Amino acid sequence: MTTWSQRLADRAGWRVDAPAMVATYEPIGGGWRAVIRELHGSGRGHDRYDRWHVAVLDAGGSCHYAKPEVHLSEALRRAEGQVNARA
After folding, report:
1. CA 60, CA 40: separation in Å to the nearest integer?
2. Mean pLDDT over all residues of the chain?
């Protein structure tokens, strides 16, 4: 099974801090960036759910977009799209 940090390791522009469960998308250093953090949900076993929080920050660190996503693939798409539209 591939972990989310392994999935991001192959994508351009992504940096992963696996112990902190945070990933940063910054295609241009010092510019706009997106931060994805795994949010643990409630429940047990198959009833458990996790969500992904996406935040888009400008070069000064101000947040311009924040939204939870249910699926990692949607969080990645949203993060990359929001940053690339602003870069």
Report:
1. 28
2. 86
Backbone CA torsion sign across 13, 51, 74, 47? positive
Burial (CB < 10 A; 0-12, 13-18, 19+), residue 79, is buried
CB atoms within 10 A of CB 85: 10
Give me the amino acid identity at 87: A
Paired tokens of 39: 């949010």
Tell me, what DSSP letter sits at residue 53? E
**How far is it, in rounded angstroms, from Cα 49 to Cα 42?**
6
Across 23-34, average pLDDT: 93
* 60 phi/psi in degrees, rounded to 5: -85, -5
Number of residues that this document lists for the chain: 87
